[in-house]
Write a structure and sequence with these properties.
- This protein is an alpha/beta fold.
- Helices cover 40% and strands 13% of the residues.
- The protein has 15 helices and nine strands.
- It has helices at 8-17, 34-45, 70-78, 103-114, 178-185, 222-239, 243-248, 253-262, 264-267, 277-283, 289-309, 321-324, 326-337, 360-373, 376-382, and strands at residues 26-29, 90-95, 119-120, 142-143, 155-160, 187-194, 199-206, 212-219, 314-318.
- The strands form two sheets. The protein has a six-stranded mixed beta sheet with strand order 4-3-5-2-8-9, with helices on both faces. Strands 1-7-6 form a three-stranded antiparallel beta sheet.
- α3 packs parallel to α5 (178-185), α5 crosses α11 (289-309) and α6 packs across α11.
Length: 387
């Protein structure tokens, strides 16, 4: 087969942009350029929708009577959970809300230190020499270094953003049931060559959650995470060479405010149908407050997926842990994954803190809103950011 390799710049952009889109189900691409294929894949993802959710735990989020029932989404996921049928390594999900700052780094660190390749639900990030994704199991996920002979025998760390994280989309595309969220955690997107069409083809499968026996849950300061998402928006504007927006959306608190003001139509869609009126009053003056809703919802649902549904051991890793105690954090992670330490270290470069993007009253409102939106277990891991 002729060799086809993806452009690294495209892959870097895709890794960031996959955070904004729903999942592709099937599409075809020209074999001439895997990099361009990936961009087409993103376009198709924008038309998908996430399934909405009802309230869980003590969160003041109400249910819309127009949304599908919990039983309908539960049935879809229950049908996926079987007795494990594969031999080989089991999956350890690396679960992160997009732009948490360490998912790609953590995968690279674990791969480097253990001298073994890991995996991802997003095959467009990595291909073999022919531009084809190589699955760990029949339906995914996909090896990060498909041609590497060094594959773990027990646990393969696997990147997933799950669902409910779309950026600047309608609120209905942001909300999830616990069951639909779990389904998206197990959704793998691959690239195959079709002899029938003589094209590359994007495929999506939901793999069996019985393959998942543990999880690593990444958490970043919500204020920093929200601004980092804004920086992703700037990155897109710059790539598209939109001069007027480049001048308006700068890497400053003022640019952040401009960006959030321009998304006011999206922010205003978060109504009392979805969130208690008292929460709406708290967050109405918070820049890009829909992202706070997405962020807290995502972490609530991640804990439900691992603690209540799968009942698997979970290792909590805060972004700041790498700064405070890098070697202890790294070794603790390797011990949890039961992977060896070869002694090689991937240097960690900390990102900035963006608290100066918010006024003191906005931070106080963020604090109070997060208390109301978060489940008890989520708040136990977030309260450190509001001390």
């Amino acid at each position: 087969m002729t060799e086809h390799k993806a452009n690294e710049e495209n892959l870097s952009l895709i890794d960031q942009e996959n955070q904004e889109a729903n999942f592709p189900y099937e599409m075809h691409r020209s074999r001439d350029s895997v990099g361009n294929v990936v961009m087409l894949c993103l376009c198709s993802m924008l038309i998908g929708t996430f399934l909405p959710y009802t309230l869980f735990g003590e969160n003041p989020i109400s249910r819309s009577p127009q949304l599908p029932s919990e039983n309908e989404t539960k049935e879809m996921v229950d049908n996926l959970q079987h007795t494990r049928t594969h031999n080989g390594p089991q999956i350890a999900w690396l679960m992160s809300f997009p732009n948490s700052g360490t998912s790609t780094y953590t995968l690279s660190l674990v791969s480097t230190v253990s001298n073994m390749t890991m995996a991802s639900n997003y095959a467009w990030e990595h291909y073999d020499n022919d531009g084809i994704s190589v699955p760990v199991f029949e339906k995914g996920p996909y090896w990060l270094s498909p041609n590497s002979p060094n594959r773990p025998s027990k646990t393969v760390l696997t990147k997933t953003h799950c669902g409910g994280y779309c950026h600047n989309c309608h609120v209905k595309k942001s909300i999830e049931t616990p069951h639909s969220f779990l389904m998206h955690c197990a959704m793998a997107q691959g690239i195959v060559w079709s002899n029938k069409t003589q094209d590359f083809q994007a495929i999506s499968h939901v793999y069996d959650t019985s393959e998942v026996d543990r999880a690593v849950h990444l958490i970043r300061d919500p204020l920093d995470n929200m601004v980092s998402r804004y920086h992703l928006g700037i990155h897109k504007v710059t790539k598209q060479n939109k001069t007027d927006l480049i001048e308006r959306y700068t890497y400053t608190p003022e640019g952040f405010k401009n960006y959030c003001d321009d998304q006011s139509d999206v922010q205003d869609e978060l109504t009392s149908i979805y969130v208690d009126q008292s929460v709406l009053e708290l967050i109405k003056d918070i820049p890009c407050h829909m992202d706070l809703f997405r962020y807290v919802q995502w972490h609530n649902l991640a804990f439900i997926a691992t603690e209540d549904f799968l009942k698997i051991p979970t290792h909590i890793l805060h972004y700041e842990d790498y700064n405070r105690s890098f070697h202890d954090s790294m070794q603790s992670l390797l011990d949890f994954l039961e992977l060896p330490n070869s002694g090689a270290i991937e240097p960690f470069e900390s990102g900035k803190s963006y608290r100066d993007y918010y006024t003191p009253p906005q931070i106080e409102a963020l604090h109070n809103a997060t208390v109301k939106l978060a489940s008890s277990i989520t708040w136990s891991h977030l309260k450190r950011y509001f001390v």
